[in-house]
Amino acid sequence: MGSNSVDNHTFSITTPLYYVNDLPHIGSAYTTIAADVIARFQRLKGVPVLMITGTDEHGQKIQRTAEAREKSPQAHCDEIVLGFQSLWQRLNIAYDRFIRTTAPRHQAIVAEFFQRVWDRGDIYEGHQQGWYCVSCEEFKEERDLLPEQRCPIHSNKAVEWRDEQNYFFKLSKYQSQLEQFYADQPDFIQPLSRRNEVLSFVSQGLQDFSISRVNLDWGFPMPTDPNHTLYVWFDALLGYVTALLDPADEPTLDNALQKWWPIQTHLIGKDILRFHAVYWPAMLMSAGLPLPGRVFGHGFLTKDGQKMGKSLGNTLDPVDLVERYGADAVRYYFLKEIEFGRDGDFSETRFINVLNADLANDLGNLLNRTLNMAGRYCQGQVPDVMGDDIPADYDLKSKGAILATTVEAAYEALAFSQACEAVLGLVRSCNKFLDEKAPWSLYKQGQQAETERVLYAVLESVRLAAYLLSPIVPGLAIAIYSQLGLAADFNDRAIGQTLPYSVHSRWGYLPASQALGKAEPIFQRIERASE
RNA sequence: GGCUCAGUAGCUCAGUGGUAGAGCAGGGGACUCAUAAGCCCUUGGUCGCGUGUUCAAAUCACGCCUGAGCCA
Fold first, then answer.
1. Which nucleotide has the least CA–C1' distance to A205?
2. Among the four A25, A138, A281, A324, which has the fewest Cβ within 10 Å?
3. How much is the pLDDT for A156?
């Protein structure tokens, strides 16, 4: 039993519901990996976790893309969804819910939520005309357009003139409530620079936004006026609520909100910050619901210092990447090498350098060399030593003793790079320690006891490193535990019970005298392809 | 035009008033348990530019330059 079992609090986290206009790109993979790591760390601590991802499938853009492919919108969505799900599987993403906004039960949730907002008097009919970008599903200000009425974001497509009756949500009504909320919850929007952006935006005055479209078939009809279709964001954001339903639940708001609401963390790319940090809380206020804990907008990825884009022809295909290098490698690179929140770059050279240096050389080889020695000097068993027997002046012991505290703080702050750095610090100390103690010489000199203490201290440090890195590289962690003779499935949702954090995050756990596994490289060095 | 964030070694970044740091990459060395891996040493920076405050500034203030982004 986990003695650290927490006061019945739960943890729910979302990725964006990805738009199924196309197959997943590396940015979606980046967000999803990060969310998975956060979820895995909470599970490790024994907290009940619900990790939500999914797809946003409505809107004119989808309708047109499907038409262009000569498929029905639903058939198109079904196909793209498979692409997302298969990528998440390859990347070892342990999500708990995959919500599709085309799900029938989602319609029920949207209708009920809409009714609450309607009853609150926050929806009214208005008139809207202007230039409309179908790709953005948004009206654009004329001054923002490029020459020839082109959308600045989708510069290859002309915007369309629209003149229509729409329904609006009274966002303006919530300006002061929102500002109060941001002041009361300074950590609601992260990182800080994103928060500043939002505060500045809101302080300029909020305008109501439209939540319906006419001339759009692919979406939910507005309950109070079936000639209108609900605008994608109103529909999509509510996917987070629908996702909370247990499969057997009747699709009602009460059921959905019972266990996991409010969401603790919405993880998003910085491009959709406004919807999550402004529109969404206002909608929830209108419906009288508690607000989420935080919205974290991470940065964008570049490739070799350049923006990625289809038009530039320099996209990075996540499927290709994971097929070539494996899930752990991809997960590790993006979280270790990019400071979460800032923009970051992918370059193949750096990718190979980082993985070889950290996972193959420092960590992988450390385990390998130590296991070999244990095989030779200790009959292939964990030395008959307990953590308490290790002299206090072994700095691995003192470093190991405080590592979990440091790493935990880093994970909680979503500072994955720091978490990796801290663990790597212990790993590097191990390599240095081995060279200083030179157990191969100790053994030859007949100093059996000291040899065993040294090897135990290193094996235990590697175990701890694996445990603390397991949210990021679950496959490696499993391999390391296995070679240490410990059965552990870090993909198990109940990991917090089977390998309790209070026990495994502490240096000194490794049981003495058990049989070690066979020493095999856990992470192959990547040979640089000759150009 | 207004605002935000960033600008420190080839690369990625720490350092927020008291004599410039880490990892990676590059160069050299000793060792051998190991996935030529780890260990040791080392090259490399007038901390974007300028002015000011201070006994003292990468660190504070003001101005400017460059990059990323927000202003529906």
1. B72
2. A324
3. 66
For the segment A5-10, the average pLDDT, to the nearest whole number, is 63
Cβ atoms within 10 Å of A320's Cβ, excluding its own = 11
What percentage of chain A reaches a pLDDT higher than 70? 95
Whether the beta carbon of A306 falls within 7 A of nucleic chain B: the reply is no
Q: Which residues pair with A301 in a beta bridge?
A: A344
Dist CA A246 CA A98 (whole Å): 12
Please, what CATH class does the domain formed by A347-504 belong to? Answer: mainly alpha
d(CA A448, C1' B17) / Å: 53
Asked if residue A427 lies in contact with residue A462, where contact means CB atoms within 8 angstroms, the answer is yes
In the predicted model, what is the mean pLDDT of residues A38-47? 96
Q: The complex's ipTM?
A: 0.93
Beta strand A294-298 with A265-269: parallel, antiparallel or unpaired?
Answer: parallel
What mean pLDDT comes out for the span A184-205? 91
**H/E run at residue A474:** helix A474-483
pLDDT of residue A305: 82
Q: Domains of chain A: which residue ranges?
A: 347-504
Give the other-Cβ count within 10 Å of A10's Cβ.
Answer: 14
Under a CB-based contact definition with an 8 Å cutoff, are residues A17 and A241 in contact?
A: no
- CB of A337 within 7 Å of some strand B atom: yes
Residue nearest to nucleotide B2 (CA to C1'): A200
Cα–Cα distance for residue pair A325/A116, rounded to 1 Å? 49
pLDDT digits (tens, 9 = 90+) for A388-427: 888 887 889 999 999 999 999 999 999 999 999 999 999 9
In this predicted model, what pLDDT tens digit does every residue of A376-396 receive, in sequence order? 999 999 999 888 888 887 889
A464 vs A422: CA distance, rounded Å: 12
